[in-house]
Design a protein that fits this description.
By secondary structure, this protein is α+β, with helices and mostly antiparallel strands. Helices cover about 20% and strands about 25% of the residues. It contains six helices and 15 strands. The strands form three sheets. A six-stranded mixed beta sheet has the order 1-2-3-15-7-4. A six-stranded mixed beta sheet has the order 5-6-9-8-10-14. It has a three-stranded antiparallel beta sheet with strand order 11-13-12. The radius of gyration is 17 Å and the shape is globular. Bound molecules: zinc ion. Zinc ion (ZN) binds next to loops. Zinc ion binds near residues 178, 181 and 236.
C-alpha cells in the first residue's frame, strides 16, 4: 500500500523494506506554487514560475535527504524509450527543463546518488527496483506508452544492460487516472485492441474505459514478474484531486507530482 509519510510525500510499503534506496510519490500539498499549480508542482514545463518549482524541488530533496542536483528528469513524450543513466547525465533536468534528457519516458541506472524522477498528472508512474543487482528504474506510461509496451521495454533493458532477472524485480505502480475515470474514444480503443487485446477495455454506461493499471501489470507478469512483486497504489488521480494533480480532472491546467527513486550513497 502507498502510505502517507507526510502531507507532501507518500511511500510504498514494499520499497520501504529496502534500506539502500530512497523513493517517493509526491502529493500536491505543502509546496510554494500558486493556483492552478497549487501547490507542490515539480514541473518546469506547465507554465508555473520556475523559482517556485525550484523551491518545491529543493524542499522535496531536502526532506528525503539528498540534493536538488541529484535529480535527473526527462523530456517526456508519451513514448516507450528507456535511457540508461550514466555519470555524464548527472543533474540533467534538475534545475530547468531544457537540460532534461531528450525524448524518453523511462530511465534506469545502477549509480548511487542519482534520483530518477518522472512527472505525473494522470499517466502511470512506475518505480522499478532489483535488490539483488542494485538497479533502479522509473517510467511514465499513458495509454500510448502502455500500448507501446514501455513496461516490457523497461524490464528487457534492465535484463540486457545489467543482467537483472525478472523474478527479482519489484515494481510499484503509482497514482494515475484509474479504470473508474479513464474514458477512451475510438482511436485509442483501436490501438489497445491491436496491441494489447480488447479485454483491457471496460464498457460501462455506453462509454469505454481503459484499465492502465491492469494493462501494465499483465505486461510485467508475462515477462516473469510475479504479482506478489507488484504493488499498486490504487489511487485514481481524477477521483483524488484533493491529494494529487490530475490533467483531466483539472481540464489540462494543473501541476505535476513526482515519482522518484534513488540508490543511497554508500
Ligand atoms: Zn477515478
Amino acid at each position: 500500500m502507498l502510505k502517507p509519510y507526510s502531507k507532501s510525500i507518500w511511500l510504498f510499503e514494499s520499497l520501504l523494506t529496502y534500506k539502500r534506496i530512497v523513493h517517493f510519490i509526491s502529493s500536491r500539498h505543502q509546496g510554494f506554487s500558486d493556483p492552478p499549480y497549487d501547490s507542490f508542482n515539480l514541473s518546469f514545463h506547465v507554465g508555473d514560475e520556475p523559482e517556485k518549482v525550484l523551491k518545491n524541488r529543493q524542499l522535496l530533496s531536502s526532506k528525503l535527504g539528498f540534493l536538488i542536483e541529484d535529480f535527473v528528469t526527462l523530456k517526456q513524450v508519451h513514448g516507450a524509450n528507456i535511457v540508461k543513466i550514466t555519470e555524464k547525465n548527472r543533474g540533467q533536468g534538475a534545475f530547468d527543463y531544457k537540460s532534461a534528457i531528450e525524448a524518453a519516458d523511462g530511465m534506469i541506472t545502477n549509480l548511487p546518488g542519482i534520483c530518477l524522477m518522472v512527472l505525473i498528472a494522470d499517466c502511470v508512474p512506475m518505480l522499478f527496483y532489483d535488490p539483488n543487482q542494485q538497479i533502479i528504474g522509473v517510467a511514465h506510461a499513458g495509454w500510448k506508452g502502455t500500448t507501446e509496451k514501455i513496461a516490457e521495454n523497461m524490464v528487457n533493458t534492465m535484463v540486457k544492460q545489467y543482467g537483472a532477472r525478472p523474478k527479482d524485480i519489484i515494481v510499484c505502480i503509482g497514482p494515475s487516472i484509474g479504470p473508474c475515470c479513464y474514458e477512451i474514444r475510438s482511436d485509442v480503443i483501436k490501438e489497445i485492441q491491436n496491441n494489447l487485446g480488447g479485454e483491457l477495455i471496460i464498457f460501462k454506461d455506453n462509454r469505454y474505459y481503459f484499465d492502465l493499471w491492469r494493462a501494465n501489470k499483465v505486461q510485467l507478469f508475462n515477462l516473469g514478474i510475479g504479482y506478489q512483486n507488484m504493488e499498486l497504489s490504487g489511487f485514481c488521480t481524477k477521483c483524488r484531486r484533493d491529494i494529487f494533480f490530475s490533467f483531466r480532472g483539472e481540464r489540462g491546467r494543473t501541476g505535476r507530482f513526482g515519482a522518484g527513486i534513488m540508490i543511497k550513497r554508500e
